[in-house]
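Subject: for your reference before the review

Hello V.,

The reviewers asked for a structural picture of the protein, and I figured it would be easier to keep everything in one thread rather than splitting it across files. Below is the amino acid sequence we used in the manuscript, unchanged from the supplementary table.
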Amino acid sequence: MAHEKNHQYHILPPSPWPFYSAVAAFVMLVGCILGMKGDAAADWSVAVVGFAAVVFVAYGWWRDVVRESRAGDHTPVVQIGLRYGVILFIISEVMFFVAWFWSFFKHAIFPVPDIEGQLQPTVELPVGMWPPEGIETFNPWDLPFMNTVILLLSGCTVTWAHHALIENKRKDLVLGLTVTVGLGAIFTIFQAYEYNHATFAFSDGIYAANFYMATGFHGFHVLVGTIFLAVCLFRARSGQFTPEKHLGFEAAAWYWHFVDVVWLFLFAGIYVWGR
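And here is what came back from the structure prediction:
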């Protein structure tokens, strides 16, 4: 009786995953820096190793969280804390993209061809062009618009799946998640095709750097969200979600809607206005 749990909080046992995740993310970051600064394929191999480590840590950590949930440790009080955590995580991701939008709009509104050597603030800098001369931008109403429609449709299908889960319609839940995962995969394929046919490279000036960092990181988020929803699809087929308890699915749906909204700003700001 002395060891019987008499509260709704979940006391976590010691876990190695926070430390492992920090090491894996650091290795991936160093690898990305080496890959962007050099031409050797060996430089990117460090980033690949780091990314593989991040995937392994995510699998192990989320596996433990799922086990805790199925063991009954995710009480209503714990679920509130988890929801706050997901909300704060998404807010931090919003601020991450705000940085790239800030950089893009700053250089679009005040384009300067070269500020190196201009140390005196009273010197009037020459006005440049935006997009810079020699940059051939994408037609926003071609593949980017198609990707916009795809993401908007995926937002509808994941919402359909969510309502199906609440109403305990298992078949519609699985179908909605399957369609959403498929649309996410199609978006990634189309974006890879777009990058493969771009007329400018990552190192071709500030426009190219901002374009690839903003759209590339969004594409990475789409890939992560697709994997997230694929895991939810597997769990849904296994009957792990119930109308009363499906926090993992809610987190995936919130994340996917965040990805949708960010793309709308990218499409309107970078593809349409920035052209």
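For the response letter, the relevant points are probably these. The two ends are 69 Å apart (CA to CA). Residues 115-126 have pLDDT under 50 and may be disordered.

Happy to draft the paragraph if you're swamped.

O.
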